[in-house]
Amino acid sequence: MALFSGKKNEAETADSPIESQPRPSQAEIPSDSRGAQQEDVTVANIGKSIAIKGDLTGNEDMVIEGSVEGSIDLPNNQLTIGANGVIKAEIHAKSVIVIGHVVGNINGIERVEIQGTGRVEGNVGAPKFVVAEGAQLDGSIQMTGAAADSSGSNNPSKPSKPLSAPATEAESSTDPVRKAG
Description:
It is a single chain. By secondary structure, this protein is mainly β. It has a domain at 38-139. Helix content is 10%, strand content 39%. Strands 1, 2, 3, 4, 5, 6, 7, 8, 9, 10, 11 and 12 form a 12-stranded parallel β-sheet that branches. The N and C termini lie far apart (93 Å). The relative contact order is 0.09. Mean pLDDT is 75; it is low at 10-36, 148-162 and 168-181.
């Protein structure tokens, strides 16, 4: 019994299921919010020490833990705003998951999810919208319809009415009764 003796016989060494093999990091294996793993998907990571100003476009899933100011366009991919992510941008992506903080409008072609620690200051448009307990949304929600059918007649990437910018503090504090009188 080589298990406790410290000695290994050749059969145990050759086929040992306990051998440590390198495991891919979580960022290398993207999964949707239900835990199903996708195969052969590349994920770009923007670390928490990275700051980007300008337009961010791409053709791969992205996780942002840093800051981005400008616009983000990932129409065929998932965008995840990590817990450390601070975004001041207009966002257009296939699927958006907010765990951090977003200031700006979000347009999700398939879905938008704001997790419990997520905060969005802007309008959200998507056919599917998930809000966890504790999430914060300061803006409006526009359900844009189901995903495009095979005929292509329904285009959820473009809402019927464009999302407008969130009201400024001066606009939201204006008393309409005083204006009328």
